[in-house]
Amino acid sequence: MSEHDIKETVKEKYAEAALKVLGGERGSCGPGGACGCDPVSDNLYDAAEQSGLPEGAVLASLGCGNPTALADLHEGEVVLDLGSGGGIDVLLSAKRVGPTGKAYGLDMTDEMLALARENQAKAGATNVEFLKGEIENIPLPEQSVDVIISNCVINLSADKSRVLREAFRVLRPGGRFAVSDVVCRGAVPEAVRRSMELWVGCIAGALEESEYRGLLSKAGFVDIDIEPTRIYEFTDAGVDDVLAREISGRVMGAFIRARKPALAPRSPIVK
Question: What is the pTM of this model?
Answer without folding.
Answer: 0.81
